[in-house]
Amino acid sequence: MSSTFGRLVRATPSRRAVLAVITLVLILSVGVFAIDAGGATEPVPFDQTVEAGLAAESEQVLQQADATVPRAEVFHSQYQFVVGYQGVSYLIDGLQQPGHAKQFGRPVAIYVSDYTDTEPTLTDAGYPQTETDPGWVRVENAVFVVDSEARLPAGDAIVPFSSRRDATSFTDNHGGQILEWEAVRTRETDLDTVSRVRGRVDRQHSSADDRVASTQPLTDQDASIVVGEDAPTIQAALDAAPPNATIRVPPGTYTEQLQINRSVTIRGPEATVCGDANGSVLSVTGTDVAITGLTITGVGDSTEPADGAVEQEQWDSFVESGYGRSDAAIEADNVSTLFVADVDIDTPTTGVLLRDVGTTVVENTTIRGATQHREGFMGLTSIRSPVVVQNSTFLDGRDGVYLHRADGSVIRDNRFVSNRYGVHLMYTSETLIADNVARQEAFAGVTVMTDPSGNAIVGNDVRNSSTGLTLSGANSYVAGNVLAENDRGIMAGTERSLYERNVIHGNDLGFRTGTLRPSNRVVRNDFVDNEDTVAVGAGPLRIWNHDGEGNYWSKRPNRLATGSYSPTGRLDTSLRDPGVWTLTTSPAATALGLVRDTVAGSRESEVLDTNPRSRPVHPETIDDLETTADD
Question: Domain of 336?
């Protein structure tokens, strides 16, 4: 027997695959995945859990308010990590997710924060506060106050108590009703699910159209002043202009740095405004301003804020200091409306810089940064300013578009070339990134950091870059994108997100899923000719299937007409070898297929598509990509 075993180990890959299958089936047959349901569990420090729930911005806001978030910890029968939820609503939402039990097993124990004896109060914003840190109580021993005045940034807060008397005292002060766990766990959570994000895409496009239309009247101001006729310089014309005037700038070069402190329109075309390479060129503090038809050069090279320019008490002051106070071609601060169109910018630092601007539209604009992204800065930076950026081009520089706390922005139909990141989101939720083209991006075409919620990334085309999409956060909708010829197609660090109808073609690595708690839905995607198709991190089995439909895998053998397919499994990825094909009909492989399809946790750190497609979703796109590659 030992000599036979040795020959198998030293044998061909196909024989080693046979050994692996037999060994795994034998292990499974003796119940290695069985968990003692009566095993003792105790709460762990929350920072040692796999956390889910609040967006990073919400956590910062709550921390600054000295709020106490009702938390939960869940121990699962077939998941090796404790899951921590920032908010009881997120706990309920997680337990209600389709396929949750199959991937994680049943909850062995659930603990929630115990507000008994903590003297809870509410901040002016309704956030819970306590005199002492809450302890833990098992959910079956707790009562829950719902529908009270207590809130979290994502909606109503559910507040647990081990003492009904303390819960009653809380409702006397802050309203609400008291429920047992069995009634709470079936409640509908008021969380922005990915289905709503998907349904919101068309409305966001329409809303962006409305924002664009609302800025158009700024270009049709009645009174006008002509530079060179009515005033010697652009600044002189600005100083003399009545409200809502148009400053007409004839063709030529104007060496000026402009202070725009009233509602005006500055219109070219073919006029160049050139600064002295020291500071911003156009500084906007007027209420409603339009800038059209200009070329802007001579931008300063400083990225540092002036002393005292940033309010250091704000939690995000370090971001504003680092990115939001550089020199810029156009710098707008605390403005109601800004419209920038048909503008051409050369800058060593920032092209357009926005801070606390109500409505901004940037369209048909070209921004060129430093050739080496390490030496440049942002094409457009938006700090706390929702913006529509469309039909524009961002060449070189560090990031094409950088958004910080700019919820609800729309970035669409733009072109990004040779940046660090094309679009870079920080602490920004509910944003639409659609139909953009990115090429030769040093780090990624689109990157979403700091765990925001509700972003839609649809219809983008990223090629020949380090990474197509690098994403984090929850409830992200990622659909209809083309990721081709990159080092990595998609780096998915999201939760409760939907990836559908993407074409992932010819990348060194097609898709990497990196979260410890798999909760994404990955369906109806085309994985074609990637060197390595999928990579996974630690965690249980990922099942990429929904409503009986999976994904298309070009590396899945044609002979494998039915049954599950694992793009990360050694056996499935070896089935192109004719010598391995006979394994599919062996008793061992049949037993393995049954186990992996029915037993939760039986295929740790792997991806399993239980109903793979036989045809691609986007055959025309794939044909175009392959034709382009042949050319």
Answer: 193-479
